[in-house]
């Protein structure tokens, strides 16, 4: 169980930001071992990364909220390395645009299961391995839509997504206060040109389409570089329990 290795777990790694995070970590840190959690471990783009960084990117089946599966990931990492140093909880969904009174309740449940409950289950499964690390970090990827102070709550019909991300922010801040040995904070990646953004356009909501047109969408690769800079430089005293923005500042709750 070498202490010279840096052990990462990136959940939601088959595409978009998650895949870019795996690539960025592997490219910049030859000592890193990255466990890439994906609902579909056979995803073609993920397979390319594992072949490129053979032996340093390990694909594991990750399903948000699946306790048995999350426990199995923790058991596998624990048996090999005895710890995990950084966990990035990136898995998320956004597939509904409608007013609160028009939204099927099951849409709220679906978004909460993945975006809020998923990171809780992951943290519970992986907590002891984080505690064994000399510099443990737990960083869920949140969204500006989870802010109750900014534009999305008044202008966009993103209730299932926004409320689930607001819950994620609360959960992560609570984790910070409950675990004095841990660096934990929710991270907003800003507007990103991912499949999720394309999904938002495809829902054909005029307000969302216009907003996306106005925003500067960064590529997943560009965002991953910034996020890893932020995460690797983070400390509990400076960053713990704060809602981080992609520009390095603090996002309003």
Automatic annotation (TrEMBL):
PROSITE patterns for the chain: ADH_SHORT
GO CC field: cytoplasm
Signal sequence bounds: none
PANTHER family cross-referenced by the UniProt entry: NADB-LER2, SHORT-CHAIN DEHYDROGENASE/REDUCTASE
Record protein name field: NAD(P)-binding protein
GO molecular function, one term: oxidoreductase activity
Family membership: Belongs to the short-chain dehydrogenases/reductases (SDR) family.
Entry-linked Gene3D superfamilies: NAD(P)-binding Rossmann-like Domain
Any single Pfam family the record assigns to this protein: adh_short
Domain of life of the native organism: Eukaryota
Keyword line: NADP, Oxidoreductase
């Amino acid at each position: 169980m070498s202490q010279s290795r840096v052990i990462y777990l990136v959940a939601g790694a088959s595409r978009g930001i998650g895949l870019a995070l795996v690539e960025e970590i592997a490219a910049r840190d030859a000592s890193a071992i990255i466990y890439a959690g994906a609902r579909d471990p056979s995803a073609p783009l993920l397979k390319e990364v594992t072949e490129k960084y053979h032996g340093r990117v390990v694909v594991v089946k990750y399903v948000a909220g699946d306790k048995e599966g999350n426990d199995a990931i923790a058991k596998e990492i624990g048996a090999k390395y005895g710890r995990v140093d950084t966990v990035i909880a990136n898995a998320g969904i956004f597939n509904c645009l409608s007013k609160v009174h028009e939204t099927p309740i099951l849409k709220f449940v679906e978004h909460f299961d993945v975006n809020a409950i998923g990171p809780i289950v992951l943290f519970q499964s992986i907590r002891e391995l984080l505690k064994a690390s000399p510099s443990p970090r737990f960083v869920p990827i949140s969204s500006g839509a989870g802010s109750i102070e900014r534009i999305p709550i008044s202008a966009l019909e993103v209730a299932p997504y926004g409320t689930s991300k607001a819950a994620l922010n609360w959960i992560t801040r609570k984790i910070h206060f409950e675990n004095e040995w841990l660096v934990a904070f929710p991270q907003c990646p800003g507007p990103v040109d991912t499949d999720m953004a394309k999904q938002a356009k495809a829902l054909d909501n005029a307000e969302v389409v216009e907003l996306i047109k106005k925003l500067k969408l960064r590529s997943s690769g560009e965002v991953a570089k910034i996020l890893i800079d932020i995460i690797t430089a983070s400390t509990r005293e400076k960053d713990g329990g704060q809602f981080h923005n992609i520009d390095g500042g603090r996002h309003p709750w």
